[in-house]
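Hi L., both proteins are below.
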Amino acid sequence: MTIHRVNCLQKLLQQEEMDMLALTAGPDLSYFCNLNFHLSERPVILIITQKSQSILFYPTLESSKVLESAIPLKSIPYGEDPKNWIATLQTAKRYSGSKITKIGIVPTCMRFLELQLLQQLFKKAEFIPATNLLSKLRMIKDKAEIEAIRKAVKIAEAAMKNLKPILAAGQTEKEIAAELVVNLLRAGSDPDLPFMPIVASGPNSANPHAVPSERKLKNGDLLIIDWGARYQGYISDITRTFAIGNIENKLKDIANIVLKANQAAREKIKPGYKASEIDFAARESIARRGYADCFIHRTGHGIGLEAHESPFISQSNEQTLEPGMVFTIEPGIYIAGVGGARIEDNVIVTENGVQTVTSISRELLFL
């Protein structure tokens, strides 16, 4: 399957008149060769040209890993002495062809370490952004990718099922987050979780990206838990809102409004609709109840090898939805000093509409 991805990329390179794409360790590199490297002081560069065999420049200590590549590679390992890196990398230039004038990179991922080596190697080349080109490929998921995401959702939901019985007043946000991490790993998640779970209670739940703290859950709190698993590199991203004991009617209303906004957005999803229209459905639902200013982020984002990728379900995105897109729907209401509610689901655009992959209850759960 990854060979097919490389072939598709090579066609796009030809269409864009881009001679070569250079990728560093990260999700884009993994997408094409199914190899994962941790960012370190040692450079890793994957080179894909319009026609030649793909080239991988990597430290010798990773040689056993490279044998697991899903695509044929011209391997160029290097030793520990940085003085020899550029001389070793010269081999890549010979295999990539003599006329390299335009090199695509991902500006948000390409480090100066690797960029400097490439600039020394291809002195006359122009380096141009290739982010959109890669997004075109990665945002439409194939069957294997979708199945991996489904599995990641099941793992995350199993972890939450085992967490619910221990959720109670008196526990700290950190304690809950730690237990959830253990549950995710026990349920089958890859060790590198997509993100640290967000556990935000009481006033902290008004912060969409709160960090778990030493705050103890109290009766009357709203509790937001945002968590996800990773399976074969692909992630899930789910959020649910809970009530600790008896809560004020205003907080119940907030949770119910968010639930209806989530439903309104998911019901709107269909091939041909724009991402902005899905965002509008959620935003209008919340605005009708007087909380427009309290919905302070986009309605959703794509998921795959990354927790945030294209397509982005926002007011400004006029992109048309297509079958195979997988993204979140996560409207929220946040009131500073009081609390917040968010309900996040993972959905797949199908030929006829949408399929919601998450099955865990969206109703406010009283603990």
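That was the first. Here is the second:
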Amino acid sequence: MKNILCVLAVSLICKGQIFAQNQGYWQQHVDYKMIIDMDVNTFKYIGKQELIYTNNSPDTLNRVFYHLYFNAFQPDSEMDVHSRSIADPDKRIKDRISKLKPVEIGYINVNKLTQNDVSVDFFIEGTIMEVKLAKPITPNSSVKFDMDFYAQVPVQIRRSGRNNKEGVALSMTQWYPKIAEYDFEGWHADPYIGREFHGVWGNFDVTINIDKKYTVGGTGILQNSNEIGHGYESSAPNLPKGSNLSWHFTAEKVHDFAWAADKDFIHDKVSTKHGTTVHFLYKNNLKEKYKNNWKTLQPVAVQAIEYFGEIIGEYPYKQYSVIQGGDGGMEYPMCTLITGKRSLNSLVGVTVHEIAHAWFQFLLATNETKHYWMDEGFASYIEELALAKFYKHDKENI
């Protein structure tokens, strides 16, 4: 095992050195700033997005593409038709999208888009928006895109959505207009049919205005914890007046931003020996046996983060959140969304696997849609190492 880990570590180090020394290597960069107003009664929200897009490629770009993932959750969408046409559809999807009513569908619509304050034309086809630029983006230059958009959260079917089967109000993943990755292969403007993702490295500054009864968790570091409370405060909270709270998160050097919210969340916190705060958000109305499982999970999750840090490399962020939500278990930067009504072994196994993805996807940042074995393979392997190390698990599985 040590030999395998040494080979893996050396390969990652060499990869980094090669990139550092290779004058031909480049990757794009994004800086998002978003302000979101969420209506928890209608599950609709409006947003403003400022995106600074830096073209580090040697190419001049005459167009850009955005993903509008929520548009997949509409009858006759490409995702719907695909699920109803294949021989072995995901049992969570099947024909459910085709049966959605107008108030249950998902969508992201764009009202306005400018490039450096000049209006640009755009065309939306399903989950992809193509933008014809007012001026080409030349190599080693940056542009500013400003966008007004409005959206509706779909009934939870796959990963994202509202009111999942366990009653979590909002599982907000792939919820914003997300610029597509551009690399040496060109644009990765893949229509969304339920597969995984590929994003651009960058920084996020996100403010979520939402009913003050809701607890929020996800990617990023909360910047105004003492104005929020909900278990995030470091001293007596000073809550503003009004029916909403403005949750201000920032995240640096990530390639996505996810969050979840519910007014019934319990919020527990535990710290690793390196100072990472691990947040656990799960519903208070769970049966006692499930709540006990979430309590028992907490030191195991901390052990997993510490162990992966020892064998792969220290976790580089100040927080990680394990959140009840979604439709199974899915990894995102600094967090995971998992369903909560599980046996202890299932809850531990899924959580440790998703934590493993914090390294093998969210630090490695491979193209999951094309090379899904790269993150799933390594994550599954180190998950087994961790469970064999400090949890009741069959070492022969490794």
